Amino acid sequence: MGKNIMVYIETTDNSPINVSLEALTLAKKISKENNEQVIAVLIGENLDEAAKKCFDYGADEVLYVEENKKELEAVGNALIDVKEKYNPSVIFLGSTINGKDLANIVASKMKTPAFVDAVNVKYENGKYLMTLPMYSGNILKEVTFDGDKTLVIAVRSGACKKEVCENAKSGEVKKEKAADKNLFTKIAEIVQEISETVNLEEAEVIVAGGRGMGSKENFELVKQLADVCGGVVGATRPATEDEWIPRSHQVGQSGKIVAPKLYIACGISGATQHVSGIMGSNYIVAINKDEDAPIFEVADVGIVGNVMDIIPIMIEEIKKIKS
C-alpha cells in the first residue's frame, strides 16, 4: 500500500464543489493519523484558481491535469495515470452523480471494489474503516478491506464538514497534460435539461415538502417559505412523482444527498429513504400533524400541527424579523 492519500476534486463552473473540499478535509485529518501526504487532483480546463484553493483545505500537493475531453472515461483514465505515479493508499471522491460513476470506473480498471456513499471513514490499526448505508439506507454497517490495493472511496456530502486548515501549506500547482487515449465513449451532444435548475448539494438552507402538503397548489407554500429563508426547495419522491415539482429537487436515497446548515421538512413523514439523505444536516426542523411521524426522531425541533396553518405563520414571523 502506498504512502499518499489522493483526493479527486470535482468542479462546477471552474470552482471546487463542497463535497470535494469536505473529502479533502477528511483526508487531512486521516493523514495526521497515518503520516501520509495529501494530494489533490483536478482534471479539466481553466482550473488554475480552483487548484490553488485546495491548499487552504489541507492539500500538501496539488496536481492539475489538463484534459479537454468531457467524458468521464477520459477523467477516469487521467486519474488512473496519476494513481500509477503516486501509488496512494486511498483515492477519495465526492459521492455525487459523476463521483459515483467515476469511482466505479477507476475501481474497475484497478480491479478493486469501490466503496460508495461512505458516511464515515477512519483509520485504525493500519486499516481504513468505512461506514456505509445498506438495504436502501435502512442500516449502516462498518466495513474494511483486507488487501494491499488502493482503496476507492466516494464520501457522502456532510460526512465531514469542510474546514480551512490552520497550518495550510502554500506551493506551486503541478501541471501536466493528460495522455491522449482512445475512448470507448464519446459525447456527441450536450442537451440542456429544460427544468428549474437547483443546487441542493451546495445549499445552506433547504425547505422541503412531502406528500403531506396535499396538492401542487399547497406546495407553493414550501417555495414561499424557502424564498423568505433565502434557501432552496427540496422534495420527497412522492412530491416529484405527482409532478408538484421537478425531479431535480428530490432529496433522499434515490435523489440528492444533502448537508445544509438548516433543513425544514414540511409534511414529510420521514421514510428511511428520505431521512438517509438529510442526516448530514446541521439542524432539522420538522412540521407534521402526526406526532408519531418518524421524522421527529431525527429532528432537532418538531412542530406538531397542520402545515397549511403553520407555514404561513412562519413566513410572516420571518418577514417581521427581516424587516
TrEMBL record:
Q: Which domain of life is it from?
A: Bacteria
Report domain Electron transfer flavoprotein alpha/beta-subunit N-terminal positions.
5-194
Q: Which Gene3D superfamilies match?
A: HUPs (3.40.50.620), TPP-binding domain (3.40.50.1220)
Cofactor binding note from Swiss-Prot or TrEMBL: Binds 1 FAD per dimer.
- UniProt key word Oxidoreductase: no
Which keywords label this protein?
FAD, Flavoprotein
Question: Where is FAD bound in this sequence?
Answer: 211, 236-237, 250-254, 267-274, 288
Q: Which InterPro entries match?
A: DHS-like_NAD/FAD-binding_dom, ETF_a/b_N, ETF_a/FixB, ETF_asu_C, Rossmann-like_a/b/a_fold
Give the similarity note: Belongs to the ETF alpha-subunit/FixB family.
- What's the name of the protein? Electron transfer flavoprotein alpha-subunit
Q: Which organism is it from?
A: Fusobacterium nucleatum subsp. nucleatum (strain ATCC 25586 / DSM 15643 / BCRC 10681 / CIP 101130 / JCM 8532 / KCTC 2640 / LMG 13131 / VPI 4355)
Where is the organism placed in the taxonomic lineage, from the top? Answer: Bacteria, Fusobacteriati, Fusobacteriota, Fusobacteriia, Fusobacteriales
